[in-house]
Write a structure and sequence with these properties.
mainly alpha; two-stranded antiparallel ribbon; 2 strands; about 10% strand
């Protein structure tokens, strides 16, 4: 059984090889724990980057969806005029189409405002 010999001002000091093995084991364990923490942190960063990418795409699609719905309601408003219904019915359809188009337009503007920070400052999140 080997010994670790250390020298100090007061003389030499023997340390049992078991203590040496224990300290080496502790050092190796500590290195492994640090590496494991690094792997977990790196994975968390990658998940965060992916989440930001998904959020940006979701915001783009949401605004595009509301804008498209608004366009469709405006088209319905224009196409209703060609129908041969009673004038009151046509005005009712037009009013409903205008209202729905306005709602979709407000939703698109609100969505743009809600996601403005995410879309405007890419470096703040990634």
């Amino acid at each position: 059984m080997g010994f670790l010999v250390t020298r100090s001002k007061s003389g030499t000091k023997k340390v049992c090889s078991i203590a040496l093995q224990t300290s080496q084991f502790a050092e190796i364990t500590c290195q492994l724990v640090v590496r494991l923490e690094w792997v977990h942190a790196t994975a968390a960063v990658e998940r965060w980057k992916e989440e930001v990418i998904l959020l940006r795409e979701e915001s783009r699609r949401l605004v595009a969806s509301f804008t498209e719905e608004q366009r469709l309601w405006l088209e319905k408003q224009d196409s209703i005029a060609h129908l041969s219904y009673d004038d009151r019915v046509v005005r009712g359809y037009k009013a409903n189409a205008q209202k729905q188009a306005a709602v979709q337009g407000r939703l698109a503007v609100k969505a743009q405002g809600q996601f403005a920070l995410v879309n405007a400052q890419p470096s703040a999140f990634v």
